[in-house]
Amino acid sequence: MKTEDFAFDLPSELIAQFPAAQRGSSRMLHLGGCGGALHDAMFADLPRYVRAGDVVVLNNTRVIKARLYGVRDTGGKVEVMVERVLDAHRVQAMMRASHPPHPGSKLFLAEAVTVTVLARKHDFYTLRFDHESSVTELLERYGNLPLPPYITRPAATTDEARYQTVYAKQAGAVAAPTAGLHFDEGMLIALREAGVAVTYVTLHVGLGTFQPVRVKNIADHKMHREIFRVPPETVESIRQAKAGGGRVLAVGTTSLRALEAAAYRTGALESSCGETDIFITPGYRFRVAERLLTNFHSPCSTLLMLVSAFGGMENIRSAYQHAIKQRYRFFSYGDAMLIERESW
User: Fold this and answer.
1) What does the angle CA 290 – CA 294 – CA 189 come to, to the nearest 5 degrees?
2) Distances (CA, A) of 133 to 125, 141, 177, 343
3) Residue 34 clears pLDDT 80, i.e. is over it
4) CA-CA distance, 182 to 336, in Å (whole number)?
5) pLDDT for 122-158, tens place per residue?
6) In sequence order, what E strands does the chain have?
7) What is the pLDDT of residue 151?
8) How far is Cα 172 from Cα 90, in angstroms, rounded to an integer?
């Protein structure tokens, strides 16, 4: 398949620059299964779309303050975007500078921290924070929230709360699992009261989520590796739900990728942890979830390819045309979409 098969024209004014006034107040487009029926709803209606015995799977990753600004030892400005914390003093990061720093050179970030460039591989640098405090402490103290590149304003104080899910627990992501941003505590309570099990996976969203697909043939694209964990209690919740005829609703493409990574080796869901570079495209055979709650994604993105695999290419194409016509809000702070798997 070609990357251009996933192109569409998106009016820039539909790219949400701010979250909805309140969590849970967004719209939600429901896409049925094989018939491709569309229904305009509100996210607050979600309890009407589940039944007792279902299970909802959430990604409990927490976004770190991964963006740092400073200067090089040569005096030029530099922006550092931490992609992964490797240990107490080393990170993997991307950098923006007028000239790429060489291994051995120094950076002075946030007017407080000296950093040594250790190595470079492709777009990523290995950096050492030359400070007695740990990287985690320094990022929390001096870092900035890494809003996505399509949000064209600086991060505000309100983003520190609204660009985290209410159930964020495991620090390590550089982007939020944005389908989860719609949930508030009231919705989680409502789902449980409806007899729905709520369970968690962890997938630390990396910078690869924003990397464009630069190849013509999507089979040539290489996904960036991300850390994930599917704990035993989640596997057991899903096993019980399926045994009783319940359905699995993955909240976000990250939750779905974690589940599929954990089922990829044997075809059955297993408790797993490690790294995954699973790339889900049309033709993929899903093993775990029957339903997916997600936001609206960028043209030609790996996320759009995933939802097209899940809901069917023609169904997704029609749904996105409908969403644009009905002025749904796109991307991280945008509206939601509930997708029934095309065939299962």
Assistant:
1) 80
2) 21, 10, 28, 51
3) no
4) 8
5) 889 999 999 999 999 999 999 999 999 999 999 999 9
6) 27-31, 38-42, 55-59, 61-63, 67-72, 77-85, 90-97, 106-109, 113-121, 124-129, 170-173, 197-203, 226-230, 248-251, 272-276, 291-295, 336-340
7) 96
8) 14
Domain with CATH 2.40.10 in the chain: 67-142
pTM of structure: 0.95
The pLDDT tens digits of the residues spanning 76-110 come to: 999 999 999 999 999 999 999 989 899 999 999 99
What average pLDDT does this structure show over 147-174?
95
| Cβ–Cβ < 8 Å for 228, 204 | yes
> Is the CATH number 2.40.10 carried by domain 67-142?
yes
Fold of domain 3-63+160-340: QueA-like (3.40.1780)
Query: What 3 state SS string does 216-259 have?
Result: CEHHHCCCCCEEEEECHHHHHHHHHHHHCCCCEEEECHHHHHHH
The DSSP symbol for 41 reads E
Reply yes or no on whether the pLDDT at 344 is more than 60.
no
Q: Which residues belong to CATH 3.40.1780.10 in the chain?
A: 3-63+160-340
Instruction: Using pLDDT thresholds of 50, 70 and 90, give the confidence band for residue 343.
Output: low
As beta bridge partners, residue 117 has 127
Report yes or no: 158 and 16 within 8 Å, Cβ to Cβ: no
